[in-house]
Amino acid sequence: MQLKDWDTSTNASQSVTADGVVTPQDIDLSGITETGTLYLQATTSTRSVTDGTIGTYPIQYQTSSTGGTASINTTDAAYAPILWDNLNKWDNDASTGTLQKYYFHAVFIPTNYRHATNTGADRNKENHEKDYLEGRNAATEWGESPKFTENSSGSGDDRRLEHQTVRFIMNLKSDGTYDAATLNSASIKLKRNKKMTISGSGNNAWSNISDGWPSITTATLTSGESADVTLVKIEDATDSGSGATEAKPARFVAIIAPQTLGANSASGATIGTDYLTLTLGSGTATEKTYTLKAADKDGLTLKYGSQYTLTATLTKFELNPGTIAVEAWKEESGEGNFEWQ
Q1: d(Cα 75, Cα 60) in Å, to the nearest integer?
Q2: DSSP character for 258?
Q3: Sign of CA dihedral 140, 33, 110, 77
Q4: How would you classify the pairing of strands 307-314 and 166-174?
Q5: Under 8 Å CB-to-CB from 246, ≥6 apart: which residues?
Q6: In the beta sheet, which residues pair with residue 55?
Q7: Mean pLDDT by 10 residues, the chain (341 residues)
Q8: Nearest to 193 by CA among 272, 132, 295
Q9: How many angstroms separate the CA atoms of 268 and 250, rounded?
């Protein structure tokens, strides 16, 4: 199983089969860096969902000096795998001896709000939404374990698990008038309009879904809910050293629901509304707040599974004398004589 887009790590994998049941040992869960639950659903193109076709696989993630490994925790009380013996082996006409083909749909729901790239004390605060994952694979013969990886030709990755959220990154740098400490102390807020929700039933993948199957949707924020997301700093800026061409920028990030930011609803408007605010010197006498508008009235549309990176440069505009020129000496002429007195 591979995760599409943000992560590219790989792990060794193998499995053993006993009595038609796949017992996970070191199942390859490449790119999953969270503890959570993987839900797996099996269905056919001709049959409704039947008992035993939804499995629950608790995922444990253990860190190590080399990064970490995700694996299925078979000792967890919630572990309820799909058993091949509970699936229909033959198609509608069993007399033909044609094995049934199954389509698998997977949803991964993390336990916590965190992301592997943030290793500091605030690592649980980076995700303003849990990093939900979802994927579907091609037709799989009965008895063959489903995979969510690149297809056999290696020409596509449409079978991997995809992020259902958006990762928004802001690189903050300066033209040299602000030092790294100032950049690192910046407060950056994103105006959001929607959040992720999980419902107990219903999904746009299949028409016949058993109760309890998780469905990931986006919902509009309701009254009283926070509409501002504070981006989390995951990398500090550094000042330029000897031989460096420029300082390393500070990096801030937020994981949010797919949505459009900074759209202008006013009729005939030609520019979007504010969607990002940046504050320097919060709580001090020198506090300054800057805002960023969307480039046009339609705003900035953030699509699921995508990472958006905005690089912003802080400049300090000072009151300086304009062009200064010195008037040339003026030549004056005249005549006179020195007389002895």
Answers
A1: 11
A2: S
A3: positive
A4: parallel
A5: 173, 240
A6: 40
A7: 44 34 57 86 65 81 80 90 84 73 86 60 62 82 80 56 88 84 91 84 42 78 83 85 63 91 80 90 86 88 90 77 79 69 58
A8: 272
A9: 37
